[in-house]
Design brief:
alpha/beta, 8 strands
Length: 250
């Protein structure tokens, strides 16, 4: 069992995750082999079920992209199901009060560090018999700050044991603050998240478009449908003159 995302972050590298919000295993596998470090499986803003996500993770079990799940909330049930089906990263949305991310860390980890129960799930078939002993050190925890109220608690959120990344939610920070990207008031919020997180020894995340911002190392790329659309447009511009052999496209 290896969480290559945690390894890369620890080595000072940047990581990028493609977003999955549809239940098609073929789409999942195409994204998983496209070069992303991880897949951001979207369960907060999609109708995806845990059964559908379990099938996709199983389909991509031999592919290099690590499965991360943005859970609907930091509840014991959501986190238990997400980890049982094989998530190696838990992304917690709408973190304002520090108690929320503390609860997520508690439910995510086996005793004595937390209160995760053994139960069933496909994690054993995915990662082998050493899973129980290695899970606490391998599963990453990402706290999303999406409002000015969350920014006020950024230092405390980043300091919670078990948190690996604090993610700056670009669009929602604009929505909740009433300021647009580039405006001084907005940039002050982002700078505070970054500085407080780095001071706590954690990594800072944001949208892929921010990959040149100083201090950021964990990024979310657009969704699979957006990637398909962009890829199709580029393909239509192609000047290739030799047709590929059927069945070799993958």
């Amino acid at each position: 069992m290896r969480n290559t995302v945690k390894e890369k972050l620890a080595a000072g590298q940047q990581v990028v995750g493609g977003t999955i919000d549809t239940p098609d295993p073929d789409v999942y596998c195409a994204m998983a082999r496209a070069g992303f470090d991880f897949l951001w499986i979207e369960m907060q803003h999609s109708p995806l079920s845990y059964q559908e996500v379990a099938r996709m993770i199983w389909a991509g079990r031999d592919l290099p992209a690590v499965p991360f799940i943005r859970v609907p909330d930091a509840t014991e049930g959501d986190i238990q199901k997400a980890t049982d089906i094989g998530a190696l990263g838990i992304i917690v949305p709408m973190v304002v009060e520090v108690e929320k991310i503390k609860a997520a860390a508690h439910f995510m980890k086996y005793p004595p560090a937390g209160a995760r129960s053994l139960g069933g799930g496909q994690y054993g078939a995915l990662y082998g018999g050493s899973y129980r002993a290695e899970a606490n050190d391998n599963i990453a925890l990402v706290a999303m700050i999406e409002s000015p109220a969350g920014v006020e608690n950024a230092a405390e959120i980043a300091s919670v044991p078990g948190v690996d990344v604090v993610f700056s939610a670009a669009t929602d920070l604009s929505s909740f603050s009433g300021h647009r990207q580039g405006e001084p008031a907005y940039e002050e919020l982002i700078t505070r998240i970054r500085d407080e997180t780095l001071n706590a020894g954690r990594k800072v995340g944001g949208p892929l478009q921010w990959r040149t911002r100083e201090g950021f190392s964990f990024f979310q790329a657009p969704s699979a449908p957006a990637m398909i659309s962009r890829g199709a447009r580029e393909f239509l511009k192609s000047e290739e003159t030799v047709a590929p052999t059927e069945g070799t496209e993958r």
